[in-house]
Amino acid sequence: MHETSTTKNITVIPGDGIGPEVVNAALRIIAATGIKINAEIHEAGAKAFQKGIESGVPKDTQESIDRTRVVLKGPLETPLGKGNRSANVTLRKMFETFANVRPVREIPGVRTPYSGRKLDLVVVRENVEDLYAGIEYMQTPGVAECLKIITKPGCEKITRFAFEFARSEQRKRIHCATKSNIMKLTEGMLQRTFEAIAPQYPEIEAKHILVDNCAHQLVMRPEQFDVILTTNMNGDIISDLTSGLTGGLGFAPSANIGSEVAMFEAVHGSAPDIAGRNLANPAALVLSAAMMLRYIGEGKAANDIEQAVLVTFEQGIRTADMAGDTPVCSTTQFTDTVIANLGRQSQTASSRDYKAFRMPASEGTVDYVEATTRHTVGIDVFVESTDMPLQLVDKIESKLGGSPFKLLSVANRGTAVYPPNGTRGSLVDHYRCRFVPGEGSDVKESDIVDLLQRVSAVYTWMHVEKLQQFDGVDVFSKSR
Fold it and tell me: Which among 130, 121, 86 has a CA at the least distance from the CA of 233?
């Protein structure tokens, strides 16, 4: 066993459903290694929502995390249909845990279609931006909008994190998975950032891959992957796919890591149907606890726990969620067996030789990407209308007399419908009208205000976007 003279302070959130059972299992196993942990127990999730705490995260929980900077967390519920935001998302945003790390490896004795292929990969997912920023609006009663927010500083942090993580685990290859062929500005920003930073890590092979092809390749030949770097929503989907390759979410640990705070949790949900029945599989939470120990510098204990879990599976120990004819053991029995196996080594999967991990620095200031020149070359105005495209164009153009703007194009659901181009398709009451100034004119703020007043004389508008050039380059999507 590993002995340490220093007590480590951590915040423990038992969570909802089976959370307290699997968290208790992890704490028992940590204690059995000899590591001294001072666990500050706090709540979040369903109980907090029931008390009327809108965020699902009480103030005393926040204060504990501010002190300890390390969290071991059980699964949290978000009540459906109540308007509550996910407490999980709140915690990630509150403490800027921008990197989600999902390791996936073949589990000895757990049979899947991929058994024997020695899968051992990690998904590194950007964790606070993208569509999961949760910025949504109803544009009309039948048209919803969600803003996809991708930032250059966010891309730089997650990319550097991925390379530093790969270096710490002596991994050899990173695939950056994006949908940059369609979303050239947002998803493309991660690809461009990845390709700019990759040469700084010459010992690591860097490849870009389209995310749909990545999903395809994960099913066809998953052993080619070592580390996969991707955006938030893509990462959510891809990481669940990778967990399915090796047995499911019951074996999937994860970490949410930021510059100052790190949270460790299982990927699976709270499983309220089996809560309190001593049936839950604690493996994912126990493996998450091992990741936590490695993060706080207790690498030997982390390796011992991981190896003990693997040995337990090699012995045929099975919880209720695992298929097979082997008699089912309880949560407590699984935990007792892991404790008994501490110090033993797996016959099928050795420990990695981990090195110190260097986090990307946090400046503590507002990140700013400077452009030498900035120029507004047009305006997109989104309007609500049940008129057909040519009717809409006639009404708007009738209001443009004396305006510096002309109506260049109209689109519906992203498809150009004016000028007429033979496109056929369903229309909704949500049009994007693109206006550009006359030749040689500059767009002034007062011109935009005037244009909106003219448009509002005939239609309700709900959204406006400037069409800009940075350093002489158009930075907006073209009409399709």
Answer: 130
